[in-house]
Amino acid sequence: MSDGRPVGGQLKKFVFRGKSASNGDTRGEYLEIVIPELLSAGYSFYTWPSAPLLAWYLWTQRRHLRGLRVLELGCGTGLPGILAAKCGAHVTLTDSVALPRSLLHLSDCCEANGLVPGRDVHLLGLAWGLFLAEVHTLRPVDLLLASDCFYEPSQFEEVLSTVAYLLDGTDGRFLCAYQERSADWSIEALLKKWGLKGSLLDLDSLSESSGVDYRALIGDRSLHLLEIISV
């Protein structure tokens, strides 16, 4: 994965709407997140298709986010984590420690949404599968997030070993939105190896209850939302 050299950019806007929980309030709820994206050779300078799906799910659960300790892995532009922070969660955003330019861009994404790194949200460089001192400080975590972290098969075990460590001995859960790229790729054996259990969330039911058609978010892509817990 290359950190890349930015050669141009755009500002992408994501709008989330919903009914207010207040009695008699018909104005509804509204949240707008803007992400500065860069046309670059690096993966982490633009928002991957799975991220809006995960962010949409978090928006449907926004009333349960306040006060939660949330950690996003491999967050790139950080859309889901930024949304969680705007909804009152205590959020740490992480990406590869080997990509310092990506972490700087992540800081820009936070600031574009009124979040001050170090005050409103925390940023950290991580190496999946390496349990260095900074990893220990991240526990306990209520909710782990990731979008398209199952992209390189050679990294699947690194991702899941990190998840297993962070969830071990807790009631926390890992929510991962991912795009199905090959029917031959599977994490079932790795889940069992690391004492984890996964299940797909029913997007149709979520779409019906929220009044938002998730298919409008994903188009013709084969996207899924996976929940993983420690067993």
UniProtKB/TrEMBL annotation:
Pfam family example for this protein?
Methyltransf_16
Coiled coil ranges = none
Q: Which key words tag this protein in UniProt? A: Methyltransferase, S-adenosyl-L-methionine, Transferase
Which Gene Ontology molecular function entries are recorded, alphabetically? methyltransferase activity
Q: Name one GO cellular component term.
A: nucleus
Mind listing the GO biological process terms from this record? methylation
As for family, the record states: Belongs to the methyltransferase superfamily. METTL23 family.
Q: What is this protein's record name?
A: Methyltransferase-like protein 23
